[in-house]
Amino acid sequence: MHRSTPRLRALAALPFVVTLAVYLVLLALRYDRLPDTLATHFGPEGGRADGFTGRTAFTAVSTGLLLALGAGWTFLVRRGSLWGAWATAGFTGVLLVLLVRDNLDATDPAQVESPLTNLLFAAAAAALLGLAGWGLTRLVPRDEPAAGDDLPDAPRLPLGAGEVAGWTRATASRPLTVLAVLALAAAPAVLLLAPWPGSLLGLLGLVIGLPGLALARVRVTVDRRGLTVRSALAPRPRARIPLDEVAGASVRELDTAAVLAEFGGWGYRVRAHRTGWIVRAGETLVVRRSSGREFAVTVPDARTAAALLNTLAERHGKV
After folding, report:
1. φ/ψ bin of 230: left (φ > 0), alpha (ψ from -120 to 50), beta (otherwise)
2. Are the C-beta atoms of residues 138 and 267 closer than 8 Å to each other?
3. How do residues 168-205 score in pLDDT, each as one tens digit?
4. Distance of CA 52 to CAs 41, 67, 108, 218, Å?
5. Of 62, 20, 59, nearest in space to 36 by CA
6. Who's near 56: CB < 8 A, 6+ residues apart?
7. What CA–CA distance (Å, rounded) separates 157 from 19?
8. Average pLDDT taken over every residue of the chain
9. Residue 170: which H helix or E strand, with range?
10. Mind listing the pLDDT tens digit for each residue in 63-87?
């Protein structure tokens, strides 16, 4: 399984450390030229200010935003996403610096304007730093794939003719949970600080954060109704495979490379011949449906779940 090594974490934190240092130095040098109230939100009409924040609050919120983004990326980063950390630091840092520049020596914050070119400069910085982060990926060695990717088919779970049984287990993705929480936490700050139309990223944070939180923790249940996988925090989303659609169940060990190659990432994934609710790498319950498609869900003790599901489906007369 691919893990965040100390070197990888350091490379992810580096652009945020540099960005924060440069930003704080800029604030210290220009603090006396900033008005007591800064224009921090701009409308679509000519980029004219329509939202304002006190100088002290602006300093605290903008610094906290960089710290939160840096901590999130440092914790969540994987080898293939290092470029994203650098791009995020570049985009956020340039937007904040340009926002400070636009407010310098302003006598009336309501007259401050933020041109659309600010977003273009921020996007260019994100692209350049993203390329730099991608180039630095070569400094992080590739992990060796885990041995024994495939485990033997799960045995049947012996049940008497009149016996009934059920199995349930909750599992969660800590990185997905943290990412969703960060997106929800950052949304108000982005809505407040980013110039139009960059403030729309705040709405994007809500769009990503809410469903992301629902998908990050799931409960897997095997019983007389078949397999049910649902969000542990809400009644929906939910996936259900009845026993008469179960052609067989087995267990696999998925590492990060296999997750990316077969499912394209984490979350609820739909591919040509398989569907998966993938919240982590590791032990995975794989159900082959009578249609030929596969459904996979990563969950601890998947072997017991597969054994019981095979037994129940066989008793149902479909295996």
Report:
1. beta
2. no
3. 988 877 766 766 666 666 666 565 555 555 555 555 55
4. 7, 22, 11, 41
5. 59
6. none
7. 57
8. 79
9. strand 167-172
10. 998 999 888 888 777 777 788 889 9
